[in-house]
Amino acid sequence: MDASKSTPQQMDSLRKFFHSMNRFMVWMWKRGWGKAINVWPAGLGRIMVIKHRGRKSGKEYLTPVNYALVDGQIYCTAGFGSLSDWYRNMLVNPQVELWLPDSKRVACAEDISDSPKRVFLLRQVIIASGFAGPMFGVNQKKLNDEQFDQATKEYRLVHFKFL
After folding, report:
1. Residue 96 bridge partners (DSSP)
2. pTM (whole model) above 0.85
3. CB within 8 A of 157, min separation 6: which ones?
4. Is 91:72 a contact under the CB 8 Å cutoff?
5. Tens-binned pLDDT, residue by residue, of the chain (163 aa)
6. Which residues contact 5 (CB under 8 A, 6 or more apart)?
7. How far apart are CA 6 and CA 115, in angstroms?
8. Torsion angle of C-alpha atoms 129, 134, 138, 139, degrees rounded to 10
9. What are the DSSP E strand ranges found in the chain?
10. For the chain, what is the radius of gyration of the CA atoms?
């Protein structure tokens, strides 16, 4: 399925599918299977959980996302763009806890979608996302930088600075 050619109704269904999968991923992390989830990054992607606070409710939420480690720094993307609840929560409450395969770390999240390194960093995140990038119509191996930039223009790029 190439989500880039999907209707709004199909994208809504895809969002709901990922939301239900997120519950399963969090359940696995809570049982200590974070390392196991990350054993095949080329296929399943690199996955971490972001513990964040709701912008309206103040409740804590757990959201699994794909991520890349570049020069010792953690980056991820909100593939559904600025509609993603975790992304909007992070804009209001940037202090988060990252559940990485080997540890939990407190970090400050920042949107760097306007960075001059956006295309390079976002490409690293998509590569680290395994099957998810091509499923969303972003085949990082076949797109040049201009095509990649166009295909991901709605994606938000997030950097996490450890505290």
Report:
1. 107
2. yes
3. 75, 77, 111, 112, 113, 115, 118, 121, 122, 125
4. no
5. 344 556 777 667 666 777 778 888 899 999 999 999 898 888 888 999 999 999 999 999 999 999 999 999 999 999 788 888 999 999 999 999 999 999 999 999 999 999 999 999 999 999 999 887 777 678 777 899 999 999 899 999 999 999 9
6. 137
7. 28
8. 100
9. 47-53, 60-70, 73-78, 95-99, 104-111, 156-162
10. 15
On whether the CB atoms of residues 97 and 32 are closer than 8 A, the answer is no
pLDDT at 59: 97
d(CA 11, CA 17): 10
8 Å CB contact between 157 and 66 = no
Length in residues, the chain = 163
